Give the backbone structure.
Amino acid sequence: MNQKTLAMISAAVVCLAAALLLTLGCRNQRRPAGMGPAAGGVTPKQDHLTLALDYLSRLDEVDPQEGMIRTAYHLNRWIEDHEDEVPWQQSPMLNGLPRELRGIGPLAELPKREFTTEDVMFLREVSWMQSISERVSQQTTELGLDDWLDQVEQSRGEPHAYELAVAARLFDWTVRNIQLDELLPYPTASAGSAEEGDSNTPRATSPLMEAKPRPGYTAFTWQTLLFGRGDAWQRARVFIQLARQQQIDVVMLALDDARQLPHPRPWLPAVLIDDQLYLFDAELGMPIPGPGGIGVATLEQVREDKDLLSNLDAGSSYPYAPAKADLDEVVALIDASPGFLSQRMKLVDAQTATGQQLVLAVDPSGLAERVRQCEGISDVQLWHVPYETWVFRKARGPREQEDPELIRRLMLDEWIFAGLTPMVQGRQLQFRGRFENNGQKKGAKAYYLESRVPDAEIEQIETSPEVQYRMGISRGRLNDQQWQAKLLAQKSMVTRIKRNVSYWMALIHYETGNYEAAMNWLKTRTLEAAADGPWTGGARYNLSRVYEQMGDLEQARDVLLLDDSPQKHGNLLRARFLRKKLEAQGANTADVD
C-alpha cells in the first residue's frame, strides 16, 4: 500500500463528520445553487438528461459530493426545459400508512419537479442495482434448478420459466453477497405511546421515534448493499430491488399472527409471475423447496401441502415457525420507497425507457391488483419499513450524542465508507462488474489490494511515529487520552477495511469462476486471519458454495455444519440437502459397480 492510499484512509478518519453528512443524505441538501451554464460547462441546447446520466455513471470515479451536485444540476436544467407531461398521481395506498410515516419529508416532496442530491443518491442506488442485476441475469452458473425449469417452460411457457430463472440467480447473488445479520426482536411500544396498529394517534415516544433499532429499518437499501450485510428483511429488500431492475415483481409476504409484532409480520419475498407467487426465504438463504424437494414452491402449493413448510424444521432446536401459521391470512407487502413514487422520477423513468434501462417508478395500485389475483392473498399493503427507515435515521441524531456504543458501531459500519477511498472505489466498481484493470483505469481488485495494509504496520499504528507519519496521522493539540483514542480508532478502521476487501476479493473470484483463488481468500485471508471477524458467517457459507462448485460435496457439508451464524437454520437445511445428494451419488456408483 502506497503513502497516498494510507493518507486517504487517514483522511477518512479525520473528516468523518463532514463525510457522514453526505453519506446519510441530510435533509438540508436542497437544489444546487450557483450552477449556471459556465459552471456546468454546457449550453442550453445540450442534452442535460444525457449529461446527468453520464455524471451518474461516473460517480464511482469522481468526488461524490461534486458529482452529485452536478448530476442534480443537469437534471434540474433538463426538467425545466421538459414540457411533456407524464400522467402522475400520488399513490392512494399511501393513505394506509400510519400518521407518523405519512408525514415524513420525502412524501411531502413527491409532486415536486426539483432534484436534490438525495434524489441523486436514489438514482445511484438504482444504477447499482441495475448493473448487478443485468450482469447476474446473464450468468450460467449451475443452481440445481435446470431440469425443473425445463418442466416449468413446458407447462407455463418460456417467458414464465425465464423470469423464474433470472429471479433465482438474483436471489442466489443476494444470499452470497449480503451476509445475514440477526433479526432484532420487535420491541413493544413505550409507556404512554399509542398501541400498535393505531394509525391515527401520534406516537412521539414509540420505539421508532426513540430510534430504537428493530428489524428492517436501521439501514437504507443502498447501505445494505454497500456494507454487504443486513438482517432478513434488509436482505429481502436488496433482492426485491434487483428483480425490479429486470422488471420482475417481488412482494414481501407477511403473516397476520396476533401473537407477534408487527401486524402483519413479514415472512419472505415472493416472486410474482403470472398468477403464481414463488417463495424465496431470505432468512434461510434458500428458496422454499417444492413438492418432492424439487424446484421452488409457490404459495398455492404450501397452502395445499403444509408438509412443504414443516419439512423445513432442522431438528427440535430449529423449527420453521411459519409451518404453524395460518396461511389463510397472508398479506402481500409492496416495497415502494419514496423515490419510486415521485413525479420527477416517473419523468426520468419515461425518458430512459428506451435508453439506459433504469426502473425508477413503481405503481403500487397496479401491482396490488395483480397480487390480489393470486390464491391465498387476503390483503395488499405498502410495506412500512422503507418509510420507517427515514424516521429512524432522523430520530437517531440526538441519540448519537448520548450513546458511545452506537457511535462506535456507526464509525465502523458507516464512516469507513465516507469519501472516495480505494476501498469505496473498489466496492462501487465491484457492483459495476469492473473487476480487472482497463488500460490506465484500475478495476475493483486493484483497489482492494491497494487497501490492504500489512499486519506488521497495523500493529505499529499505536507505537511507531514512522507508521503514523506515512498514514498521515497527526496529534495536533490532543491530550494523551485523546491521542490514544484516535490511534485506536485508526487501527480499528484500517483492520476493518482489510477484512472487508479480503472478503470481497473472494466474492469477485467466485463470481468469475476462479474457485481456487476464492477458496484461498475465504479460507486463509478471511477465516484463518480472523476467526471471529466480521465476515465469518458469510465466509463459511461462500466457502461451502466454492467446494460445491469444485465438486467436493463432503467438504461443502462439513463447512456448513461448523456454522453458528444467524443463517445456521438455513445452512443446516443445505447440509441436509448435500447429504442426500452424496447418498444419491453413492447409490448411483453402487448401481454402476
Remarks:
- The two ends are 56 Å apart (CA to CA).
- The longest strand covers residues 265-273.
- The chain has 27 helices and eight strands.
- The chain has two domains: 92-188+207-383, 406-592.
